[in-house]
Write a structure and sequence with these properties.
The structure holds two protein chains of two kinds.
Chain A: E1 10-19, E2 27-37, E3 42-46, H1 53-61, E4 69-77, E5 80-81, H2 87-93, E6 98-101, H3 105-108, H4 115-127, H5 131-144, H6 150-153, H7 163-175, E7 181-185, H8 193-210, E8 213-218, H9 221-225, E9 230-235, E10 238-244, H10 245-250, H11 255-262, E11 313-315, E12 318-320
Parallel strand pairs in A: 3-8, 3-9, 6-7, 7-8
Antiparallel strand pairs in A: 1-2, 1-4, 4-5, 9-10, 10-12, 11-12
Chain B: H1 2-29, H2 34-39, H3 45-55, H4 61-73, H5 87-122, H6 127-141, H7 144-158, H8 181-187, H9 191-228, H10 231-238, H11 243-280, H12 286-295, H13 299-327
The chains are: A alpha/beta, B mainly alpha.
Amino acid sequence: MTGSKGAPLLQVRDLRVAFRRRGEPETVAVDGVSFDVAAGQVVGLVGESGCGKSVTSMAIMRLLPQRGVHITGSVKLDGEELLTLSDARMRERRGRDLSMVFQDPLSSLNPVIPIGLQITEVLRRHRGMDKEKAREAAVELLDRVGIPDPRRRITAYPHQLSGGMRQRVMIAIALACAPRLLIADEPTTALDVTIQAQILELLKEMVAETGAALIMITHDLGVVAGLCETVNVLYAGRIVERAQRHRLFGTPRHPYTHGLLRSIPRLDAPAGEALEAIPGSVVDNVPWTHACAFAPRCHRSVERCLEVTPAGETTGGRLLRCHNPVPASAE
Amino acid sequence: MLRFVLRRLLQVIPTLLLLSLLVFAWLRALPGGPASAFLGDRATPEAIAALNRQLGLDQPIFIQYGQFLGRILSGDFGASTITGQPVLAEIGRALPATVELSLAALLIAVLLGIPLGYLAASRRGGPLDVSTIMGTLVGVAVPVFFLGYLLKAFFAVQLRWFPPSGRQAVGIDATDVTGLAVLDGLLTREWDASWDALLHLVLPAVTLATIPLAVIVRITRASVLDVMGSDFVRTANSKGLAPGTVRGRHVLRNALLPVSTTIGLQVGLLLAGAVLTEKVFVWGGIGTLLADAITLKDYPRLQALLLLGALVYVLVNLLVDLSYAIIDPRVRLT
């Protein structure tokens, strides 16, 4: 097994993804992201829309189009470099060793094919099961993800299921071959609030049951709080802060993380206290090349922030990319 | 399903009734008429009046329409003013030729169009894609009769690969079973007759197929591109499925939905294209009947042909709707 301390399950090093279009300057969506995921660990990737969290996951899965996209850096799964793997070999690993749950379960399932087939096709491809065996396995999977009457539901089409049921089917598909790594990209964003908690609970259970590691991609710190051991906060394609969950929530150091936490409504807040929002939006970003991208929106920015790119510094297990962090004693 | 089909078939009746009224009124609103067309420019008014009386065209128009409807209900579409023969019998004789030609053209358009459209989409921006797009533009833009003469001049007259016109060579004694000459030859094991019919069929069928082929290629290409970018194809790829499975099961099945609608619409247009194609290749089908009927203002024949065309169109689109319900489980037939 590769459970030894030195070698994490997934090792992402200096991942950079740039979109290039003829006649336009390239857009850097992911700008040197590095993080590790240990076997069985749950890691959060948090940030607002456009911060590069989805692109990071698609790059790890090698699902980005090849044309117009330039990927550099390194993504190693169990020590094997994924970025230089042949397409055929990558297809063998995808769905078997690493798999993904997407945001919108309705558009992510094929509308004209029964859900049973959408589960069995993974099993038949990677496990070499025959039709009958795969069917039985699919029924069992549907049962495990909490779909009632799975033997009958296996012939249902996606449009005949509710949103929550569809996401359960997606999870069944992703976990069909018991992958070592599951990436969930905003798996609850398209669902009703009442269903969100159920799906998160299910993900948590399934991951614990199968021993898969989970990368939870979300903009919702509430999701992170209940699930992740380590949290990476992404801003404009770079990780600006990384810490253990309780440390990050207890003493956020980066002003962006701080702002994100302050913008969550709290039950223990004094009545009438206004929620704080982070001013501006990602369009205000300045390039990382000679500044901090967050500086224009940052209430703690100093002159240096617009002149020098802050380096990521790790102290005591916490990574921080900031010239003027929130003092550790605050809050 | 059965109720849906029955209801749709019942809906055909008012459609045809309305159409018959339009056709009837429109034909009689045109200047001239069968009598003057038949007797020529120098016919005396008396002669024209006499012939009109003989054909029943001197009656008030609503009485004519009433009589027309009454006869249709008993299956009598009247006699052609050109040949004097019952219109239905004429159509019955000419129909197999047109059906054979249209089926052949449709087969070419579908069997070539879908793979070509798919290949163009999967090699987007490549040489095949670019040449396909240009080819389809040319295919739509070139007039059918011009292309027909062009093919005939080159492949029939110059190269002598195919016969220039007609459906059967002199000296071939084919047995008539279905009226579809190629099929008849196969059924009766008259191989030479079948081969001869096929050779005759190639040029007209290719001519007639160009426009539907071009349209099917374009729609397939656009539809495949659309589906390739969809979330469920990304899911299919994230499962690590073999490329063939992703293509066939996930891309093509979804991409064919709009294509099937297009094919239905093209069948209707084939009938229009058949008029010109049959003219060029002296095919002797419905198209020829129609062309003559228009020139000579043959009211009964025109009425029958236009109603037949409408009926075919409605039935084909019913088939399309049914096929839609089969490929797409989200479509409920109610």
